[in-house]
Amino acid sequence: MENLRKKTFFTIFIIISLFAIFFATFFNVQTYHKEYTGILNNLTRMRNLTLGKPNFPDKEPNSDDRLRNRKVMDYEVYTFILDENNNIIDKISHSDNSISKKIMIQARNIIEKNNTSNIKIGFLYLRNYAYNFEQGKYLTIIDTANTKSTLLTNLFLSFILIVIGEIFIYIISKRITEWITKPVVMSFNREKEFVANASHELKTPLAVMMASIDCLDVNKKNEKWINNLKSESDRMNNLITKLLDLSKSEYLKSENFSKNNLSMIVEKRALTFESLAYEKNITIETNITEKINFLCHKESIDELVSILVDNAISHGRENSKIEIDLSSNKNEINLKVKNKGDPIPLEESEKIFERFYRNDKSHNRKSGRYGLGLSIAKNIVLAHHGNIKAYSTDGYTTFEVKFKKMNINEKS
Fold it and tell me: What Rg value do the Cα atoms of the chain yield, rounded?
């Protein structure tokens, strides 16, 4: 259920965030394109006006021609008339600003560094000038410093709005997630309550049936049937017990946790399974770091270790070994149970933690398993804010459990 919530939340959050980023990007791209086009158009107009008036050196400096009277309101535009040797013989400001020393230096630098005629606008977020240079004729410079400042301001404001917007998107996504998952959560909770209540209700009549079967007189005629009743009653009792364990694992709460020696719990559980492993000629090897204290529900962690070790023995090959490792670092506690057996297919590595899931497609009743053990194990791990995974490499199958350090209180 928690995974469903997370997936739903992140899906909604990412979709809305992408829309916000798209509109912010679209706005900045459109603004950039508008400024770029405006600069290019002005450079083109100045070129047409300049080339449309030949023999500028023959003109009087103060003559009232179209170029000199051309005013540009949006940008600071300057035109420099050149002779055949690219010397500046006249300069014109197409705005109310006079031609500053800074512009003159920039003009000379452009003339000195360019060997060919060209238009240069560049990346407006980084450049302060755009120009159109025609050797031996003219140089038009547009001061784009204000444009650069405007574009960077828009970009910065867009970023700030997106950051602020992400907070609102987070809240909205949370609300939408709660609204979408509410029916599923209610259904899931009803299912859990039903399993718990049904298991409790079945426990009493089943106990009466088992007691009644034990009181029946056994003879040659009914021995077979009574044995069948006993076998199925025991099997049903085991199933109900597992369902109750599953129900308990789903209702674990952190307020019931206490500090326990996890190293001791794992060590004791490993010892209790040695006799069972011996029947399959399997040896259990442990590598357990001492005195790892953990804030947990002791009985549940004990059951978690039991499930993993029992699973390793059941699926382990004869004449092999099981390795149990427990270690701790700055960030987490790591528990690994490794056995040599049939590998878990990659597509089933998540499914094996589902209720009643068994990779034995025939659901062989002789195994006495119901596909609930690993579901219980996963619930216990999640209740302790950890994660569990299974994988197979080099002929070994490993179940790995990691608990976050925030739940750990270690003593040296």
Answer: 40
Q: What is the C-alpha to C-alpha distance for residues 301 and 376, in angstroms, rounded to an integer?
A: 11
- Name which of 15, 1, 7, 2 is nearest 172 in CA terms: 15
Going by C-alpha positions, the residue among 74, 403, 143, 64 that lies closest to residue 260 is 403
Segment 371-395, tens digit of pLDDT: 778 888 888 888 888 899 998 888 8
- Number of Cβ within a 10 Å radius of residue 169: 19
288 contacts: CB under 8 Å, gap ≥ 6: 263, 266, 267, 324, 325, 326
Mean pLDDT calculated for residue range 146-160: 93
pTM score > 0.70 for this model? no
* Residue the block writes with tokens 């916000």: 20
Distance CA 68, CA 54 (A): 14
Reported as a single tens digit per residue, the pLDDT across 311-336 is 899 888 888 899 999 998 888 899 99
Q: What CA–CA distance (Å, rounded) separates 310 from 282?
A: 12
Distance CA 30, CA 159 (A): 16
| Distance (Å, whole) CA 352 – CA 260 | 29
- Is a pLDDT exceeding 60 seen at residue 367? no
